[in-house]
Amino acid sequence: MTINTLAKGGCHREQMACFRKMEKVIVAMQDPDMGMKMRNQRLLITVIPHAMTGHDIITWLTHKYRISEEEALHLGNMLVKYGYIYPLKEPRCLVLRPDESPYRFQTPYFWTSTRWPASELDYAIYLAKKNIRKQGELMEYEKERYSLLHKRINHTWDFVVMQAREQLRSSKQRRKADRIVLECQEQAYWLINRPPPGVNNVLDTGLERPNNFSCRVTLVSNFIIEACRKALGRNRVKSSICLEGFLKYSEQYLNHDPIMQGCLPSNPWISDDTAHWTMNAEIVPVPTRLRVERWSFSFTELLNDAMGRKEFMTYLEKEFSAENLYFWQACEDIRHGENSKIVEKVEDVYKNFLAPGAARWVNIDSKTMDKTLEGIKRPHRFVMDDAQMHIYFLMKKDSYPRYLKSDLYKNMLAKAIVPQETKKSVFPFMRRQRHSSPSPAQTATQAAEEEGLAKGAGANSAAGSHF
Amino acid sequence: FNLIMGKEECKTMLDALNKVTACYRHLVIALGSTSDSQNLREELKKTRKKAQELAVANRTKLTSLLKDKTISKEDRAEYERLWVLFSSCMELLEVDMKRSLEIAQDFPLKVPTRHLIQTGMTGSTTTVAARAMSVQNMKYEADSNIDTADLRDLQAEITQVSQMMEEMEMKVQVMKVQVAPWAVEAKQEAGAELKSNMSVGNSSVGSREAGFASICAVIGFFVIVIVALVLGYLVVNM
C-alpha cells in the first residue's frame, strides 16, 4: 500500500499476513472463468444474486488448491470465521456447512482488518441505527453495550445520533435488494468485530492486546513531541562500531552455536538421542569443552553457568576472597526473590557482609557504603544494586583474569570432554534420524518402504545371482 | 441577533457535512464490489470534494466563533459541542477517504479482467450521490484515467484533510480556543433517536412497514381485478 497510515500517535499498522492470504483466496474466487459458481437467493419477492452453497465452496477449494476435503473444510471455515464469507440462513452461526446452506461474499470495506480496526464510534453508530430500525428491540448485550458507549463517548453522542439517522436515510436511496444485502453485511461485520458475549473473539490477540482506544479524543500531539524529545536524547552508537562488535561476537560464538556448527554428539531433535542435553546439564561431573571455553569469553558467561560459579568459588576460596562472590549471590537472591522475604534477606546481608566486624566483610568504597546503609533503612528490591555493581566490577577486574590464568581453570579445560559425533548410519535409506519423532503414519509408510526395499534387494540379489 | 444567526448557520453546515459523510461512507462500502463502476468512482470524487468544501467552511466558521471572547458561557458551550461533533465527523471522513484509496488501488477498473467481489449488491449508487450533492440527477464525465490521476488526487486530498485535522487540534490546544472534549455533554440521552421518529418518520420506521405496505398494495390490486372481472361477467351476461 502506498499510503502512509502513520496516524498521529498511532503506529503504522500492517494487515496481518493471514488476512492478506485470505483476501487473495477470495479474489481468486471471483474469477469469471475459474471462479465460484453463483446462484440466486430468493426471498419473498426479491431475488438477490451472488449466493453460493457451502458445498460449492468446498468443491472449489479442493479443486483450486488440490487439497483434501477435510483441509478445504477447515480453510472454508476460516474464511467464514474471519468474515470474508457470511452465512445467509443463520447469520449468528459462523460455521461453514458442507451442504446446501447459502453463503455470500463480504464487501471489501467490511473485510476483517488489523489496519483498520473497528472503532467505538462506528459501533455506536451501528447500534443507534439498529435501535431506530428495530424500535428499541435490541438484544440484551447490545443494550448493555449501547449504554456503556453512551457513557464512554458521551461528548460526541449527538454526532452518533445524527450520523445514524443520515446513514439510514442514505440507504433508503437504494433499491430493496441492495438494502437487504447492506444490512446483512453490516450485521456480519459487527458479529465478528464485536462478538456477542460467550462467542470467541477471533481478533483477540491474547495478552498483548493492542489498545485502540487511545484515539483522537485525547489530544496526542503533545505525546508525539515528548516522545521525539526523548528519542533525540538517547545515546547513539555509530553503526561502524556496533557492527564491529557484532562481527566479533559472531566470530567468537560461531563454534558454539548448535545451528551453525552442529551439536555434538548429535542434534537431539533430529536423532532422538538426548546425550547432548544430559552432557550439558546444570551440574555434571565433567563439563564439555565448549562450555568451559565459554567461561573465558566474559565474566557474565562464567557467572551465569552454575558449574562455572562453583569452580570460581573454589578458586576464590583459595585466594581468600570468596566473600565477594557470596555477597554477589546474596544480592542476586534479593533482586529476583520473593517480595515478602526482601526485608529479612536485606537484614541478613547487612549482618553477614556489611556490618563492621562481619564474618564475611566485603570491601566497598565509603561512598557506596554510606548510600547502601541509608537505603537499608527502607529496604526494597534494588537497595543493594550499587554495592553489588561495585563488587561485580571488582571481581571482574581482579579475580576473573587471574582465574583464567590459574591452574584450576587450565586443568578444567584439559579434563573437559569433547563428545564424539555419532556415526551416521551406513544405510542411506534408513532415514530414521531425519524425522524428529515418528508419527504413526510415518512408521507405517517406513515399514512398508523397508519391506518393499527388502523385497527389492532380495529380488535383485536373486536376479544378480543368476548371472 | 448575529449570534443566533451564527448558531443556526453552524448547525445547518454541520448537518450538511454530516449528510455528505454518511453518503460517502455508503459509497465507499460499495467499492470493490459488483456495484463498483466508473460512475461510482466519479461519485466518490464529487462527494469527497463537496465534503472537503463543507469541512473547510465549518472549520472557519467554528474557529471564528470560538475565538470570539465576547460570547456568553452557554453559547460557548454550544459551540464547543458543535466543535466536538465536527471533529468526530472529520474523523469518520478521514478514515473513509483512506480506506477508499486502499480499496480503489486494490480493485482497479481499467484492467482486462476485473475481479470485483460478488457481494449481491448490483444496483447503482447514483441516488445516494445525488442526495450527497443535493441535486436531482448526477451528471457524469467519461474520465478515462479514473484509476491513476484520480487516486493521486485522492492521496493529496487525504494529506490535506489530515493536516487540517492536526491544525484543528493544535488550534484547540495552542491558540487558546480551549475545547475540552470530555467536558461536552450530549444533548440527547440514550435512545433519543427513537423519540424523534416523527420527523425521520417514513424513512426509518418504514423499512419493515414498506414490505407490509407493498403486500397490501398487491392484495388490493388483485381484489380490484377480481371485482372488475365479476362486474364484467355480469355485464356480459345481462
Automatic annotation (TrEMBL), chain A:
One of its GO terms (molecular function) is GTPase activator activity. Keywords: Signal transduction inhibitor. It comes from Oreochromis niloticus. Residues 436-447, 454-467 have a biased composition (Low complexity). Residues 32-115 form the DEP domain. Pfam families: DEP, G-gamma, RGS, RGS_DHEX. The keyword RNA-binding does not apply. GO terms for biological process: G protein-coupled receptor signaling pathway; intracellular signal transduction; negative regulation of signal transduction; regulation of G protein-coupled receptor signaling pathway. This is Regulator of G protein signaling 11. GO terms for cellular component: cytoplasm; neuron projection; plasma membrane. Residues 431-467 are annotated as: Disordered. The keyword Flavoprotein does not apply. Residues 298-413 form the RGS domain. The lineage of its organism: Eukaryota, Metazoa, Chordata, Craniata, Vertebrata.
Automatic annotation (TrEMBL), chain B:
It comes from the Eukaryota. One of its GO terms (biological process) is negative regulation of signal transduction. The keyword Membrane applies. Keywords: Membrane, Signal transduction inhibitor, Transmembrane, Transmembrane helix. The chain crosses the membrane at residues 212-236. Belongs to the RGS7BP/RGS9BP family. This is Regulator of G protein signaling 9 binding protein. It comes from Oreochromis niloticus (Nile tilapia).
